[in-house]
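Journal club prep, notes for RB
We'll compare a predicted complex against what the paper describes. Inputs for the phosphoenolpyruvate case:
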Amino acid sequence: MRKKIVAGNWKMNKTPTEAIALAEMLKPKMSTDNATVVFCVPYVDLVPVSEVIKGTDILLGAENLHFEDKGAYTGEISAPMLKDIGVKCVVIGHSERREYFAETDETVNKKVLKALEYELTPIMCCGESLSEREDGITIEKIRIQIKKGLKGLSSEQAKQVVIAYEPIWAIGTGKVATTEQAQEVCHAIRVVLGELFGDETAQEMSILYGGSVSAGNAAELFKMEDIDGGLVGGASLKEDFEVIVKA
Ligand code: PEP
């Protein structure tokens, strides 16, 4: 059975002091029998949050990494650094990073490969803009992002990757994709994963939906056949996250 995953993406929110308080508040509410919960937090919050969640099943996640092990990359953080402090997952290629930090499918691919080398679970994001959806090229765009982002991976490596489908127009906007829209694209992602790595691998890979997931819509979205959980921004910073995890 595929893993069910709910990952909170805290983005650039919460000082270390605030992060400790948030993690303490959420910690007792995160118990679930059948889902993996991940807190993806800003770099400076990783160590303090790791202390709070120690001894629980909550996994620690980062929001980015560099694709080199070390070197003259001022301001960057590497996979071995994340590994060393107990990070288990890392968000790669979020649309905000693609838009504001010039990330491309090529850098996303290098980051995915680097994360796998250090046994970090990549949560690789893909998603179309509103104009791409209106132009009817959503599926083409997603297929390209998946093919380029996962270039060079073996089926065994692909099984370690989590895909997050996040329509850009739904992120932080309160506009959620309909369950049919989300399912249609998540299914198309599973089809392309099957073409690349074989059906057995595609069936094992978790595909998350992200984009204004809330306490009110999570259960409906997560019921869909090809949606194995969520990548959650705004609502992961609130008590509401409990309802989403339970869903
Ligand atoms: C995200 O940050 O990946 C996201 C989906 O944000 P939100 O849930 O706030 O739309």
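Talking point for the session: Residues 5-246 form a domain with the TIM Barrel fold (CATH 3.20.20.70).
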